[in-house]
Structure formats: C-alpha cells, structure tokens
Specification:
Length: about 200
C-alpha cells in the first residue's frame, strides 16, 4: 500500500489564527528578553491586543501567512484522518443519548473550574481568539499556574466530587436530587457549550 494513502486515527491539532501566532511570538520574544520576569497574563494580553489593533496590514501579513500555512496543514491532515471505530461509537452515543434532567451534574475537574473562572478574562483580553485559541491559552495558563492556585481549584474539585457522590446515592434511590447544585456546578452547562462550540469549529 502506498505511503501517501495511509490514514491516521489521531485527530489533527487544531489550526491557529494569525492573531494567535502574533501573541505566541510576542510571548517568546518577551521571555528571551526578560527570562526572570513574572509576566501578568491580563496585562500582557491587553498590550498584545492594543498593538495588534495599531499594526498595518503589511505588518500583519507574515502572521496571516503563517495561519494560512497552518490551515493547509490542518485541512491536509483532516483528509487523512479517519476516526477509530471506538471514537465513532463514543461520538454517536454522546449525541444520541438523552440526559436525564433529574440526574446529578457531573463533577468538574480542577482545570475545568479554573477555565470557567478565567475564560471570560482571556476572551476579553484577546477578542480575536477562536474557541480553540482560548482553550490553548487556558491550558498554558494552567500549566504555568502557581501550586497554591492549583491547590485551591483542586479543593473545589474535591468538594464537587463529594457533592456528586452524595447526589448519586440519592438519585439511585429516588430517581431525583432534592438539593440544588452549588455555583461551581451551575456553571458546568456553560462550560460544556464552550467545548461543543470548539468541537464544531474544529470539525468544519
């Protein structure tokens, strides 16, 4: 079988926008010049956004070219991408199953709670970001977060898991949950919508 016809079941990495490349390069250049400086993300992103707005089309050209190259890479990889049978089954099952409205809300991992708190700040600081860009930035922020910050969100996640376990016991006995979910869980559907938007964008 020719090498060029080989299909991959590994989903391609999402494509990057011109603005995302601009921010990435700005961050890399800043780290080279100030390796010891503790960058405040909100301030740095705001400066990047302001600088991007004042740049001419000529200055932005190289970033758009980088984005075009990455778009072609993504489209080519998507043509060679074949979802595994296991993944197809999971996606089909996920879309077809009706969720019981009385069932407890699933517990959120620490990273999801962190993302829910920080997502609006990232979007506000980077209005040109796509859903995929936002998720990548949140992932970077989480990986670079102080241990104390991660510990705080892990405690919230542990509390939410305990809440879920309690409610599941009640749900299995009575078929419903009497107590309303806490604030961290109320935000869960919003977060799910963001993830679905990102999936749709990557699938296009």
């Amino acid at each position: 079988m020719p090498k060029g016809n080989t299909k991959s079941d590994t989903k391609p990495r999402g494509r990057m926008t011109a603005y995302a490349y601009f921010v990435q390069i700005c961050r890399e250049e800043h780290k080279k010049k100030h390796p010891e400086e503790n960058v405040v993300f909100a301030e740095f992103s705001k400066k990047c956004a302001e600088r991007w707005k004042t740049m001419s089309d000529k200055e932005k050209k190289r970033f758009h070219e980088m984005a075009d190259v990455d778009k072609k890479r993504y489209e080519a990889e998507m043509k060679d991408y074949t979802p595994s049978e296991n993944e197809k089954g999971k996606r089909g099952k996920k879309r077809k199953q009706m969720k019981d409205p009385n069932a407890p809300k699933r517990p959120l991992p620490a990273f999801f709670i962190f993302s829910n708190d920080e997502r609006s700040k990232v979007k506000q600081a980077n209005p040109c970001y796509t859903a995929g860009d936002t998720s990548k930035e949140l992932g970077r922020m989480w990986s670079e977060a102080d241990p104390a910050v991660k510990s705080k969100y892990q405690e919230l996640a542990d509390e939410d898991k305990a809440r879920y376990d309690r409610e599941m016991i009640e749900y299995k006995k009575t078929g419903k949950v009497s107590q309303p979910p806490p604030e961290v869980v109320k935000s869960h559907p919003v977060l799910n919508n963001e993830e679905e938007d990102e999936e749709e964008e990557e699938d296009q």
